[in-house]
Backbone:
């Protein structure tokens, strides 16, 4: 389905799951074409897009081999297995399990509960709902980081955990969460946000980011 | 923390995430000690348990090396890396990504939205909420399986995807979802539920399953 010889990323600028994969691609120095999918305009619910991603979720990734990959963490694992430059997981199995637990704590226990489709369904206020669950989640995540963090989420090397943390931090800010309540998260994010890879993949730098405040 | 020389699984009988890991342990023929954590009695919210699992979620796994592992999918990946008997993922990277996408579609896009803590927070009826999101999820999952399924979720070999599907099917039944609407899921589950590993790890067979209907 790619029209160029680059891999394709279906992405929505402010989707934290899309951002995870943008970060993985950036750290691994993989050039790619962005195809924006506007969730607010329901572009993810077209038959054409659902043929690629049946849940109508972003991101989706099409590699140069023409294969379609979905689910952000599965895509990052795939990129890590096929592009060894800048490994996203440690080598030791116990360490890998620790990083994967950090990744999944955000990817399963925090992010999904506050996705757009959930917010649209709840009869509670959207921001209250997000604030509630992100705050609870970060409170627990901070405890995980007490055991694992160095300069970054797992020791002093960037891992997949950091690629998941920064986009969730952004979601927290959007939901009005006071991030200074979580000093380790706050400190790691302050370090991460200075890196070129984070700046270049930030929602505000995406081709589909509107000029007006969003 | 283990009192025997067996690994320990902190588990709640009807937690689908606990069941995933029970299945992985069963297929890999790893003997273990079950330590029940009753979510309905808030046993997961004690300081003692949260020192093990800061989110207060089940399962948690303590291996014979004394290391603590949390997050069900990370635990399954760890078991698969350290106990090669009965591999849960294919060898090829594209295939692995496909199985992981199936796993994560349930583990991130379906299950978390209907966990007990979410159901307690929503002001909609618990069963209606679960039914809504599990139905939407299985509708999309069925489309994924159209591309991947054989006898099982991915071809004709049991993978991690099946270990995640069966417990989610059980959640669907509990939420009153008509599973015959999803013929591939229904067929795969009918095959899976006849296997000894599924029978032995079923919620109703757990030491903490109450005698009364639950």
Residues:
């Amino acid at each position: 389905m790619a029209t160029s010889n680059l891999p394709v990323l279906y992405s929505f600028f402010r989707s934290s799951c899309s951002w995870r994969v943008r970060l993985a691609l950036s750290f691994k120095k993989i050039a790619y074409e962005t195809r924006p999918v506007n969730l607010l305009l329901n572009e993810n619910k077209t038959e054409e897009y659902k043929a690629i991603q049946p849940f109508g979720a972003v991101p989706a990734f099409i590699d140069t081999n023409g294969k379609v990959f979905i689910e952000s963490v599965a895509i990052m694992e795939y990129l890590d297995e096929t592009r060894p430059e800048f490994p996203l997981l440690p080598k030791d199995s116990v360490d890998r399990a620790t990083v994967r637990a950090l990744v999944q704590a955000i990817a399963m226990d925090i992010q999904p509960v506050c996705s757009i489709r959930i917010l649209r369904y709840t009869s509670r206020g959207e921001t209250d709902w997000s604030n509630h669950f992100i705050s609870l989640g970060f409170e627990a995540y901070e405890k995980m980081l007490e055991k694992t963090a160095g300069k970054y989420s797992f020791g002093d090397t960037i891992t997949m955990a950091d690629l998941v943390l920064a986009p969730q931090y952004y979601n927290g800010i959007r939901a009005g969460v006071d991030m200074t309540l979580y000093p380790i998260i706050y400190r790691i994010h302050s370090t991460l946000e200075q890196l070129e890879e984070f700046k270049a993949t930030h929602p505000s730098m995406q081709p589909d980011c509107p000029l007006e405040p969003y």
Summary: The mean pLDDT of chain B is 93. Strands of chain B lie at 8-11, 33-36, 60-62, 68-70. Residues 56 and 132 of chain B are 26 Å apart (CA to CA).
